[in-house]
Amino acid sequence: MVKENLQEVIHNMEIACKNSGRDMKDVTLIAVSKTKPNDLIMEVYESGIRDFGENKVQDLVKKSEELPKDIRWHMIGHLQTNKVRQLLGNTVLIHSIDSIRLADTIDTEAKKKNIHVDGLLEINVAKEASKYGFIEDELEEVLPIFARYKNLHIKGFMTIAPNVDDAEENREIFKKLKKMSVDINQKNYDNIEVRFLSMGMTGDYVVALEEGADFVRVGTGIFGKR
Ligand SMILES: *Cc1c(COP(=O)(O)O)cnc(C)c1O
What is the per-residue pLDDT for 45? Predict the structure, then answer.
């Protein structure tokens, strides 16, 4: 089942790339394996996927210890500062940097471990009260702060689009994040390079790819309901 689901997702991604003149090699599917057991994760691994996403530090660390070492683990969930130390060294990319306090902690802990950490800023594009992340209006004030970090490097933006029935409703959200990335790159903030957009989930990854997603995060579409 999981392997068939995965093939379908990859097929849909190929069509989306083709339709928007993009190269499949330039986009990355993150299989969101949160709450899922290792045997299912291994099925996806055996089909060639190496990028997996988790939203809880304990689960990510545990799975990274138990599963093959060439898996790239992406931290996609809200991150508490007291969990940062445990996470660092186990993740290839933190998608969910949603406050300066968290960024401060990541940089400090990375310094202690003498490692460099890549992160994405979570942007609450639709300004939903229920969601974490920076809103567009505060970016001008917030982005210069990242220049002070020596060990944390910002490589792009992530967003969780609203839960909608028709993915087309989120097209404007993805367009807007893409536009923000272009605008902000032109401003050349120190230590901020918006190279990667992490956007699109099971319900809307095709639309997100058409609008410029570099990472799509698909859970249910591969592993089934949680
Ligand atoms: C759970 C989760 C996903 C995957 O959601 P699906 O709808 O199951 O594909 C993607 N991104 C984040 C941040 C998540 O927490």
Answer: 98
Question: Given the CA of residue 95, which atom of ligand 1 is nearest to it?
Answer: 13
User: What string of H, E and C letters represents the secondary structure of the chain?
Assistant: CHHHHHHHHHHHHHHHHHHCCCCHHHCEEEEECCCCCHHHHHHHHHCCCCEEEECCHHHHHHHHHHCCCCCEEEECCCCCHHHHHHHCCCCCEEEEECCHHHHHHHHHHHHHHCCCEEEEEEECCCCCCCCCCECHHHHHHHHHHHHHCCCEEEEEEECCCCCCCCHHHHHHHHHHHHHHHHHHHHCCCCCEEEEEEECCCCCCHHHHHHCCCCEEEECHHHHCCC
Give 20-77 pLDDT, tens digit per residue: 999 999 999 999 999 999 999 999 999 999 999 999 999 999 999 999 999 999 999 9
pTM of the predicted structure, to 2 decimals: 0.97
* Ligand 1 atom at minimum distance from 221 CA: 9
Residue span of the structural domain in which 66 resides: 2-223
Q: How much distance in Å is there from the Cα of 150 to the middle of ligand 1?
A: 30
216 touches ligand 1 (CB under 6 Å): no
| Structural domains of the chain, count | 1
For position 140, which CATH number holds?
A: 3.20.20.10
